[in-house]
Amino acid sequence: MAISMLVPGLVLFAMFSFDIVVAHPGLGFGWRSNRPVGRTFSSSLYPQFYQFSCPQADEIVMTVLEKAIAREPRMAASLLRLHFHDCFVQGCDASILLDDSATIQSEKNAGPNKNSIRGFQVIDEIKAKLEQACPQVVSCADILALAARGSTVLSGGPSWELPLGRRDSRTASLNGANTNIPAPNSTIQNLLTMFQRKGLNEEDLVSLSGGHTIGVARCTTFKQRLYNQNGNNQPDETLERSYYYGLRSICPPTGGDNNISPLDLASPARFDNTYFKLLLWGKGLLTSDEVLITGNVDKTVALVKAYAEDESLFFRQFAKSMVNMGNIQPLTGFNGEIRKSCHVIN
Questions:
Q1: What is the DSSP string of 164-193?
Q2: Which one of 24, 83, 85, 343 is the catalytic residue?
Q3: Would the annotation count 212 as a binding residue?
C-alpha cells in the first residue's frame, strides 16, 4: 500500500522537476541531465515518462525491431512512414492503427495508405510484449514514435531525445488521411502549405523528406513522371536520362503498378545523406522529392545542397524535425486512452 502511494508521488515529482535526458534506443533510458540548447518539449511529453511505470519499454521495442529489420531491412522505412502518416492526420495519436468497426472508418483505407502502409504486425508484436511487461501503460502512439526512432538508428541514422506520454485516440479520420498526407506528385507549394498547417517549416520539410534515404515506392507513385508528367505524354525533363531509362524498365506504361523501386538507389537500406546527392543529380524518385531542388524555392534548394555536403548537419536537423513532428497535437492527460490492442478502442 505504501509503495503504491509512493510511486504516483514520484511520477508527479518527475513531471515538474525533470531535466531533458538522453533516451538512447537499445540502451534503456539513460537519465542524463544535458538539456540541448534551444530545444524545448511540451510540458506534457518528456523522455522519462515511463521511467517508473515501464522502464524497460525502449529495450522491449528495440529487441523486436532488431529482429524484424534483420529479417527485412525495408521494414525500417515502413515503420518510419507509419509514424509520419499517423501524425499528419489528426496528430500523433495512433489513429492510423485502428481497424474498421461500427464507429470507425479506418485510415488504412485512405488513398495514401491502402495497399501501401505496412508494419502493423511489428507494432502488434511490440504491443503484446509491452502488455506482458507493463499492462495498459505504454500507448500505441508512443510505440509508433519509439519504433520510428529505433528504425532510424538501426539503419545507421541518428538518435534523439524522444518526448513520451502520448495517449491513443478513440477516433480515426478517413477524410483526414485522404487530404492531409502529402501526395507523391505534390508541388513545392503544396508541400510547404501542408507542412505549415502542422506547424512545420522548410527545415522540417527538407530534413523529413530525407527519410526517403531508406525504403521503396510503388510504380503507381512515380509512373506519371515517366510517361505523362505535364499532360503532354512526355516524361519529366528533370529526370536524369540513365535513371529515367532504368525506371522505365521497372515501371511499364501499362500494368506493373505494384512494382517497386528504391527511393535512394545508391544505399536503399542505409540511413545517410545520399538521398540529397541524388536529388542534385536528377535522380529523385518522386515528384515530391525532386521539387525540393527544382521548385524554385531558394530555401529548400539551399537546404538540399547543405545536407548533401554535410551528413552530420542533416542528421542533427532530422532529429530535431522528428521531435517537432512527434509533437503535432498529442493527446495527453485524461484525453484519449491507452489501448489494450492497437487495432481497436477499449
A1: B--BB-S---HHHHHHHSPPTT--HHHHHH
A2: 85
A3: yes
- Give the span between the Cα atoms of 91 and 118, in whole angstroms: 19
Query: What's the grid cell of residue 234?
Result: 512526355
**Known catalytic membership, residue 85:** yes
Residues paired with residue 262 on neighbouring β-strands, in sequence order: 216
Residue type, 161: E
* 213 annotated as belonging to a binding site for a ligand: yes
* Sequence-separated (6 or more) residues with CB below 8 Å from residue 310: 273
To the question of whether residue 264 is assigned a binding role by annotation, the answer is: yes
The DSSP symbol for 149 reads: H
Q: Distance (Å, rounded) from C-alpha 50 to C-alpha 21?
A: 13
Bridge partners, residue 30, by sequence: none
CATH top-level class for 56-215+263-327?
mainly alpha
- Does 19 appear as a known binding residue? no
Mean pLDDT by 10 residues, the chain (346 residues): 41 34 31 33 82 97 98 97 97 98 96 94 98 97 98 98 97 96 96 97 98 96 94 93 96 94 96 98 97 96 98 98 97 96 96
How do the domains of the chain map onto residue ranges? Answer: 56-215+263-327
